[in-house]
UniProtKB/TrEMBL annotation:
EC number from the UniProt entry: 2.7.1.24
Family assignment from sequence similarity: Belongs to the CoaE family.
Species, as recorded: Nakamurella flavida
Ranges in coiled-coil conformation: none
Name by which UniProt lists this protein: Dephospho-CoA kinase
Length: 413
């Protein structure tokens, strides 16, 4: 199965999107409803709230006094965090229970308004965001019975679309008629979600066209960050790096992200395969090592494990390599050298353009890759000389902790 988070501010239309997918066959779980269920009378959640905030948070009938609790937590950040520490783990567990009860080929959709951090987004195979201008959201909320002042206050209390959208693999602007959002929902369901779930269940890769260079996309970095967080979470928090041409600012490339996952040893790299397949990254059989460099080097240390994308909407190569192995260092050095050396970057672009022109009609990128090999042989010595001059050492991997901001923004048709 795959899990899909649908997120957006109040009045954006996220629940409308989730409801449409429910009509198409998705298993939809409403996080707001779960949040109410986990503090219902008789639950451990309600008992924990009463213990933490006092018995005055309960009504005479033993139910949660939501107004009294809101008056406390909205005025005190520490109090709100205490409440979240009670509610959020229980909501996550309740969602997991419903997910685990779904069919193996299901699309499980979590309608979750408070998706505000990268680690939370990484728990899902895909995150779809819905946004709308405040001037459209306010009338929608008034139609639900809110006053204009209350509607604007609730919108202001949530994170902005600009902060939410970088967490999303798809971003829909819901500023048109209702049937337009339904049409978009249907296209995403048919073209992305159903094939994605089918590929994950079968452990198969999504189709990919042959080599075609596109101009550098400033969104490649934030896409790599989202996917890197997803990959790292699948294997327990290992280091992930954005490598390859899409990691070099300004360099045209195939629209295929390259990530490197760092393993402590080869057995661990191979042992991660099942978890990565479940997370949406099927393994590629028959490719188990890099080309040794320099020519004639011992091929033994150049082992790797290759995974790719089950998601038809985002092409990805995921290289699992052992920390400090020659292939691991070369991937990082090659990226940093190209980023720092304009001459090397221009030379490589010319080689890429020629290779792509000669192999643009191919069904795969194999011919394109082989056509670059002669240049890469010479690039090894050039990059090593640059590394010596620059005192190069591998830097840190992607910051997937969720502590820093997630740059970029994605809007999808």
């Amino acid at each position: 199965m795959i899990t899909v988070a649908v997120t957006g501010g109040i009045g954006s239309g996220k629940s409308t999107l989730a409801a449409r997918w429910a009509q198409r066959g998705a298993v939809v779980v409403d996080s707001d409803r779960l949040a109410r269920e986990v503090v219902a009378p008789g639950t451990t959640g309600l008992a924990a709230v009463a213990q933490s905030f006092g018995p005055e948070m309960l009504t005479p009938h033993g139910e949660l006094d939501r107004a009294a609790l809101a008056a406390v937590v909205f005025a005190d950040v520490d109090a709100r965090r205490r409440l979240e520490a009670i509610i959020h783990p229980r909501v996550r567990q309740a969602f997991a229970d419903r997910r685990d009860a779904a069919a193996p080929d299901a699309v499980v959709v979590n309608d979750i308004p408070l998706l505000t951090a990268l680690p939370a987004a990484a728990e899902f195979h895909l995150v779809v965001g819905v946004g709308a201008p405040a001037e459209l959201r306010v009338p929608r909320l008034i139609a639900r019975g809110l006053s204009e002042a209350d509607a604007r206050a609730r919108i202001a209390a949530q994170i902005s679309d600009a902060d939410r959208s970088p967490l999303c693999d798809l971003w829909l602007v819901n500023d048109g008629p209702a049937d337009l959002l339904s049409d978009r929902a249907d296209r995403i369901w048919d073209d992305r979600l159903v094939p994605f779930a089918r590929n994950v269940l079968a452990g198969e890769r999504a189709p990919r066209r042959g080599p075609w260079l596109v101009p550098a996309d400033p969104l490649w970095g934030v896409q790599a960050l989202r996917l890197g967080a997803r990959v790292s979470r699948a294997v327990g928090g290992a280091r992930v790096d954005h490598i390859g041409s899409t990691a070099v600012p300004g360099l045209a490339a195939k629209d295929v992200l390259d990530l490197q996952l760092t393993a402590p040893d080869l057995a661990t790299a191979r042992g991660w395969a099942e978890a990565l397949v479940r997370a949406g990254f099927p393994a590629v059989r028959g490719i188990d090592r890099d080309t040794p460099r320099p020519t004639g080097a011992d091929p033994g240390p150049w082992h790797k494990v290759l995974h790719v994308n089950a998601d038809p909407g985002r092409s990805l190569n995921l290289y699992v390599r052992v920390r400090e192995s020659p292939g691991w260092r070369w991937a990082l050095l090659f990226r940093d050298w190209l980023a720092a050396d304009a001459g090397a970057r221009a030379d490589y672009l010319a080689v890429k353009e020629d290779a792509a022109a000669r192999h643009v009609g191919d069904a795969t990128a194999e011919g394109y890759t082989l056509a670059k090999e002669a240049w890469l042989i010479g690039a090894w010595d050039r990059s090593q000389r640059w590394a010596d001059r620059a005192g190069w050492k591998p830097g840190p991997g992607l910051d997937i902790s969720g502590e820093g901001p997630v740059p970029g923004r994605r809007e999808s048709p």
